[in-house]
Amino acid sequence: MTDAATYRIHGATGDWEVVIGLEVHAQVTSKAKLFSGASTAFGAEPNTQVSLVDAAMPGMLPVPNRECIRQAVRTGMAIDAAINKWSRFDRKNYFYADLPQGYQISQLYHPLVGEGRLEIALDEKDPDAATKTIGIERIHVEQDAGKLMHDQHPTRSYVDLNRSGVALMEIVSRPDMRSPAEAGAYVRKLRTILRYVGSCDGNMEEGSMRADVNVSVRKPGDPLGTRTETKNVNSVRFVMAAIEFEARRQVDVLEQGGAIVQETRLFDPDKGVTRSMRSKEDAHDYRYFPDPDLLPLELNDAFLDECRASLPELPDAKRRRYVSELGLSPYNAAVLTAEAETARWFEALLAATGSQVTAKAAANWLISDLFGALNRIGKDIEHSPVSPEQAAELLALVADGTISNTLGKQVFEIMLETGQGAAAIVEERGLKQTSDTGAIEAEIAKVMAANADKVAEYRGGKDKLFGFFVGQTMKAMGGKANPGVVNDLLKKALG
After folding, report:
1. Structure pTM?
2. Greater pLDDT, 483 or 81
3. Taking every annotated instance into account, which residue ranges of this chain make up the domain Asn/Gln amidotransferase (predicted)?
4. What is the DSSP letter of 154?
């Protein structure tokens, strides 16, 4: 059992507090690997993107990829972290079939990025909710290992080295999170920032972002307990589920008189459980030492200035601007800035509408109409059948009275199906709204004649019938009458 306000696990001996830290591995956006020119494209045939450096052929020397370093520095700047002008690569020694060199080039003692922070909302559905700052200990750059494939042969395992040497940023948090919800909010916020910066695509399902989840439990106020590390969790939902299970498991072990073993575990998403993988190694087990093939990284001020100048407006700043300058509600601003692609689409829409459509109207349409349609047809905003420019044309036709809101929804559906522009659809199908008072008055007269009893009721004080007359008139006009003109004329006719 848990308490939603202050997350606790209620055990037989009392309440337990969960302590969570995350090590997020984010693949750096770069066309080439960290120390070679081999491609990093996703989905290639096994072992088709492997250079001699990646395969650890004798005499091959690594050469750092400047773009990978630049992207890691920009990421550090986006989380207000200290950038270390001097950093160094180390060798982390271990032996596994998917690691051709017998060591991984990483950074332990002198990382590229030092301490930073990330602010999360404690209730992501409420933009005005309290926030919490999660400390970030470091970001270091390292190369990925290859991949073992166990399902290609009944008795053998195959090795795919396409990922060998791919650049990763390992973003290490402080153990500041106290619930699965906080950990989920942290991963989502971090992924949003990475996507805004463009340093990682954040596609967890493709393995370009994954988390090692460190969990321990303690009685509130006690020292930190022994932690376990659950490796390579590849979705926000699974991160939260792994924490739930692992914390509960640890409480059960401790309450039965057992001890938590410091170990590495794996999460089984099908069963929702963690299981032991191996005992947890300490730094000395890897025999770290400075990589003799690589000089230390030394960053100059010009490089750092260029990195800082290249940063986009980040989500928190953008959200505040949408509220203060565009007049959007905090909720709408939060929705529109939650993903970089959504914010870009919205801003392209605003640019295309100019002063014809208010930002509020554009935001409401995007969040309700466009999001609803995309959800229905199973597409994301990047693959929307309707472009920002087409949407701007539609909204402008509604704003200037050419078509009504109701007709606008019909035109939008046709746009989704055909890809045609709004103006062309309105012209071809004769959907222009009419403000011809003579034609509207004639239809009002017919409606009133056909419903003399309701006219009498309305005039007798049943004001709610006004909506009935509006609906009947609009129906008679095929939905093409200007609603404002209909309302005005009806009020006069009904007295």
Report:
1. 0.86
2. 81
3. 344-494
4. S
